[in-house]
Amino acid sequence: MSTGLGFGATVARWVRRTLVGVVLIGLVLVGGTALRVWQVARIDDYSHADSILVLGAAQYDGTPSSVFQARLDQGAELYRMGVAPLVVTVGGKQVGDEYTEAEAGRDYLVTRGVPADRILPVPVGSDTLQSIEAVAAALHARGLDSTVISSDPWHSLRARTMARDAGLQAWTAPTRTGPAVYTRESQLHGIIRETGALLWYQLTHFSADFKYKGDQ
After folding, report:
1. Residue 124: helix, strand or coil by DSSP?
2. How many structural domains does the chain have?
3. Rounded Cα–Cα distance for residues 140 and 146 (Å)
4. What Pfam families does UniProt report for this protein, alphabetically (predicted)?
């Protein structure tokens, strides 16, 4: 009887230790990923590239949302700095929309002084992964293979990871304006969301995209 109780206690102890170990590993994995999201968000790499990639966001009848405008303004600034001779805008459209995100982005960049013949709209993609894969195909078709990504700071690591997986040499110089960075709350929201989205991508190689709070 005592032997059976002792064996049961031993099993229960090992189950508890295993559960604690799994929880600790999960915390380390999540915490480490969140740290990397935060670290890459702070990087501004202005190394010369073949292109500047401005990732799409919501647009309304051709007018970029505040999140999209911040990304586009950064893309225009990178072009003026001579980081790359070509700016790529990307993104499809919702049912009923007249403009794609790529077209709205192109038109906005022209108003910011970027020559129309220096802009390549890629009107494809409803999430980051689809968009980046479409851009990689468009750049490779032109013999180009490097890009600097303009997006929100917290989006940088996932976008860079996807771009490199798609065969591009990619680095980041994110916007420092817009709803994604206005408040501590929006910054924390972005880090948490991107940590989960990056872990999901690394596990499944599918995208998990959600609108930024304040993307309007």
Report:
1. coil
2. 1
3. 9
4. DUF218 (PF02698)
Tell me the residue length of the chain: 216
Whether 129 contacts 163, CB under 8 Å = no
Whether 212 maps to a domain, the answer reads no
Residue 26 lies in a domain: no
All residues at 6 or more sequence positions from 50 whose CB lies less than 8 Å from its CB, including other chains: 84, 85, 86, 139, 144, 145, 146, 147
How many Å apart are CA 93 and CA 113, to the nearest integer?
Answer: 24
Helix H or strand E encompassing 106 = helix 101-111
152: exposed, middle or buried (Cβ count in 10 Å: 0-12, 13-18, 19+): buried
Residue 215 belongs to some domain of the structure: no
Check: pTM over 0.70? Answer yes or no: yes
Q: How confident is the model at residue 207 (pLDDT cuts 50, 70, 90)?
A: confident
What pLDDT is attached to residue 183?
87
CA Rg value for the chain: 21
Asked if residues 106 and 123 have their Cβ atoms less than 8 Å apart, the reply is: no
